[in-house]
Amino acid sequence: MAWSATLRLVALAGLLAQDASAQTGSARGSDFLRFGCSQLVIERTDPLVNPGMAPSPHMHQIVGGDSFNITMDPMTIDPPKQSRCTSCKMSEDFSNYWTASIYFRSPENGTFKRVPQMANGRLNGTLLEQEGGITVYYMQPFSGRNKKVTVMKPGFRMLTGDPTLRTKPAGSMKVCHRCLAKNERIMGGNGAPCDSGDTSEFPSKPCPGGIRATVIFPSCWDGKNLDSPDHKSHVAYQPGSALAGDQCPSTHPVRIPQVMYEIMYDTSGFADPKYYKNGQPLVYSFGDPTGHGQHGDYLFGWEDGALQRAMDALGTNCFSETCPVLKLQSPEKEIACTKAQQAKENIGTDQCSCNF
């Protein structure tokens, strides 16, 4: 994503958001760490929702540390110690981030093709160097005196979104889609994430510049549980806003960095208006033709102290894609970090592992 020129300049100048409404609607921003993660593997596994199941019910696209496994019991796995590499730009980040794949369903013959992912744009107008993958944000919004956030602990994981949704959920959007014109391909359009120009559902028109899907995670933690049975109850959003401000509910008083994903889907090959005559032709890999069910999974795996250093340095010499307190690896190394499928199957663009 490339926020509007005004928003980028404001963020660079350190003029940070003062409240949640400013973040969601105006040219104000928050300090954030932003980096690309190349594709680790595309497969039907999900150690958070379906541990031990291979294949899991639907296809996922996974990035991060190569210790990703069918089962990731926090009592037996420590991603920084057990990963040999990470597909993320930040070489101390062995976390795993994953979301669902999108397929194009041909209205002509009913066949499916997987929509490929593409690299996102840098703030300077060039493309991040990665193969597909996800762009990850760790945001540190604050108001006035308080800018401290407490980084998650080893073993922490969470889920946001609901794959069973087929209508727009109430409240502010936490998952959204942006239809990009051809000239917006790199910079991702204007406006803050999940603003009024975005939709919970799939775009209803062709998107020659691609679709940018955004997944915003909660920013408040109960301070006790690293997970919960639904993978959601131990975390919460700021009341009344998807994007965090300076408030957390009393039940979840600990402010954590707000994780956000951007997934760039290359729909340029499926943008012929004829495909949209009888409705939009895209479907998520879990059988959702609406788009409302998009969701994201997160499993913390930073090396000890690295992410806290970055969060403490934000607003000084650490911003977005440049953060001297962290170690960066070359694009060649992140792209080379891949993992063989554990649930082996064809995931080419002519194959659909959809849960219909």
TrEMBL record:
Alphabetized, the UniProt keywords read:
Signal
Looking at the record, the residues that make up the DUF1996 domain are: 46-302
Fetch the InterPro entries from UniProt. DUF1996
Question: Keyword Disulfide bond on this protein?
Answer: no
Q: Which residues form the signal peptide?
A: 1-22
Q: What is this protein called?
A: DUF1996 domain-containing protein
Q: Would you say which domain of life the source belongs to?
A: Eukaryota
